[in-house]
Amino acid sequence: MVHITHNKHRLLELTIHIICWGLFFGFPLFFTQDDSGSIDWREFINHSGVSLSFFVIFYINYLLFIPKVLFKEHTGQFILLNILLILVVSIGLRYWHNIIAFPPPAPRRPHLPPQYIFYIRDITSMIFTVGLSVAIRMSLRWSATELERREAVKSRTEAELKNLRNQLNPHFLLNTLNNIYALTAFDTEKAQQAIQELSKLLRYVLYDNQETFVPLTKEVEFIQNYIELMRIRVSSAVKINTNFQIRPDSQSPVAPLLFISLIENAFKHGISPTEPSFIDITLTEKDDEIHCVIRNSNYPKNAMDKSGSGIGLEQVRKRLELLYAGRYEWHQQISSNQKEYSSILTIKIPDNNKKILP
Prior knowledge:
This is Histidine kinase. The protein is an alpha+beta fold.
């Protein structure tokens, strides 16, 4: 990908050079026509010498002096070389005008200003040409550096996301297997049903989770399958309410398994074997935003219980920063009576991201 982008960059640069210099060398054709409309080739060659001198100065700087001298921070040497180059080219240009470009016979020559006036004009134009060459070359250098920086950031972000996904998969599977293991101790029939539900989850975790984004409909389907699995495990006394308000054909891109850690956290900390418990899960899609609101009864685990270590939530925060930096809001709060916990996540999806998915 980087190689293709670099080739396009070089092709664009070459095209611009050809067009600009083609126009520059072609301009004398419009200024050297006589009254009959035919080209005065003597005048054309005379004007072409100016174009050629600028061409030489521009590319000696562009291809040699700037990359080999200026970019290596030899500024004094760069200035000295250009002084010598401009003097040589300006003398050569005067020689071109006076001898090579078929000057008219002496008696026909009009009265001309002193020679030094032409030298001043030519040297000033050549200094401008050097400045233009430096400006263009430095702009292209900055553009190439910026491209490399963006590619490096992109590669680093992709590596971090892959690492987080690799951590999340075993974390999620371990929690799910622990839930199924708990069922085998007292209800083998439910355990078998749970294993069937787990197979649906595994397909998503192993395949769709490898993508950076998936359609929101797929993520919701996965969440629903996970909730059904948890319904098998928990007591019927636990009130689990869900509300999904999304378009049936929604293609809004969302990071896979982004919400599951929040839901896992609700099941870890929201259920008590002896006290009334509830879990409310709401996921809505509105315009360019996705809202996830999870409320549950609050029963914090004790220090000996490692199931609520918070690894999943920390991964959620890291993924949000990598994928939705500046485009999300996540609030966690506990009610004043300490009996209800809420997690509210809002993700803003730019319009141009609506078409990420096929």
